[in-house]
Amino acid sequence: MSETLSDEQVRHVGKLARIRLSDDEVAAFSRQLTDILTYVDQLGELNLDGVQPLAHALDVHNVLADDVPADSLSNELALREAPAKAEGFFLVPRVLGEDSGA
Amino acid sequence: MTDAATQSAALDVRLVVGLEIHVQLATATKMFCRCKLEFGAPPNTRVCPVCLGMPGSLPVMNRRAFELAVRTAMALDCTVARFTKWDRKSYYYPDLPKNYQISQYDLPLGSAGRLTIPSADGTKDIRVRRAHLEEDAGKLLHEGAGATSQVDLNRTGTPLLEIVTEPDLSSPQEVGDFGRELRRLVRHLGVSEANMQMGQMRLEPNINLVIRKDGAEYRTPIVECKNLNSFRHVEAAVEYEAKRQLAEWQKTGVTIETGSKSTRGWDPDRGVTFLQREKEEAHDYRYFPDPDLAPVVMDDAWLADIRATVCERPIARRARYVAELGLDAADADQIVEERANADLFEAAATALPGGKGARRLAKLLLSEGNKRANERGGLLADLPIAAGRWAEVVALLEGSKISATAAGTVIDELLTRDDAPEAIARAKGLIQTSDAADLAPLIEAVLADNPKAVADAAGPKGAKALGPLIGQVIKKSGGSANPKVVQELLKQKLGL
Questions:
Q1: Is the Cβ of B141 closer than 8 Å to some Cβ of chain A?
Q2: ipTM score of the complex?
Q3: With an 8 Å Cβ cutoff, is B62 touching chain A?
Q4: Cα(B470)–Cα(B294) distance, rounded to whole angstroms?
Q5: What angle do CA B150, B156, B162 make, to 5 degrees?
Q6: Can you give the pTM of this predicted structure?
Q7: How far is B93 from chain A (nearest CA, A)?
Q8: B476 FRET partner, CA 20 to 30 A, in B29, B76, B199, B410?
Q9: In the predicted model, is pLDDT for residue A76 greater than 90?
Q10: Alpha carbon B252 to chain centroid distance?
Q11: Do β-strands B262-267 and B272-278 pair in parallel, antiparallel, or remain unpaired?
């Protein structure tokens, strides 16, 4: 049922993930992503009339914690694996002039 | 070419604004981990594997954040969902290390509500489309000219209630009024401090224009405005956008159909908005249910417990103060600005003998009380004067037993010790004499000693010349004579 993903669609998905793709990679991922979608499409063969959407795989709800502070990590530990850091901050390639998507 | 006057005469321009408001909930810890929320803590010291987005960590929902959100949704007259779940909003940005924000997409905990705001002709209802919980992102700093940005993730995971209105707001003033009313509401509910400078309440207006010209209707592309950290900036940005969009449309003719939605920042120094980005389409966020978090199901008992924590809305309180207690609208506004102050006022008003003097009580609290509260850098309600004592001071004023100036002295004394205001006034010789029989001999003496002033009063100046005589009588009484009564008695005596 799935049509082959177009190069444009693959590049768009790559852009959302901030991944630069070569033309060869676009072709390879187009094939692989189409295979994945075709595989998942098998679910379309099931008769789901009257089946409610499931919000969670486990039959659990109301897993809640009390609003009581616990220890955080030390700054040293929090930054230990960071590839770049200074003055207690993580460092990332400079981001200019825009806010997050939040 | 049409001249400007003809052109504007043919135009009917209507401003349309909807708001997205983020309110930081007043919890001790974050939304999905127990890191402490603390404004101004050293960078990356309130972080843990959950809010750092480390593999294998599991979020657990903060019960209080959930309940505060539901309380707010109820106060906004929303339909509260008995079943809610959490969704991942995917986006790649260094301020949120998981690369997705936990939010609520198709099942917000509140929907279809409203907030009543004050307006020129009474009140206006602004519809609330939805209210949902989501986590905040971290902070990015771009210090200096280096090739890097600094990331502080202390704020990551802070619980936010996002409130989205319908586009029911039609002027900058109304947008500001909505913001101020919402701030009053969340403060009264105790769900947020809503300090805008600290980013605890963020307003993002979505603005466009509906323009009618020669029988046709045009809509300008929607602009979302950010970086607004005061109501004044919000109002100014909306006003600026209205003008900018009209000029832009007149120049280019671009409409909502031919243009795209964009985000603009507000530059308070230049008083202008500037383009930040063209907005990503909703489906680019690839929302899907978060498998790490269990849904929340609310039963009747839990809902009733939360509903019991919803207090009277400030706008209802204000209306009651005006209608039932005779307060000026402006005074009522100021009293309800802080719930603690309103509680103090109400307790004091209840203690007034015969319920008389609420209006005077409000004025006393807002003048003498506020002055002293400001000097001490606190709220009116923080002053060490009990509600009953305020009522007693007002009763003394109502009964003309002390002057307004003397009330100030009594209040200063009350700040140092808790005693009956009447006893304080008596001890300090501040009780006024209003009794005609007590004042008569003083008046006789003053009239006898001041024939020139009496002659002045009998002349063309009349009652206006009484001032010096009143002053003499008060002086003779040792400051205790009630000036109004003295004036009346002098008028009678001199046949004025």
A1: yes
A2: 0.85
A3: yes
A4: 78
A5: 125
A6: 0.83
A7: 6
A8: B410
A9: yes
A10: 39
A11: antiparallel
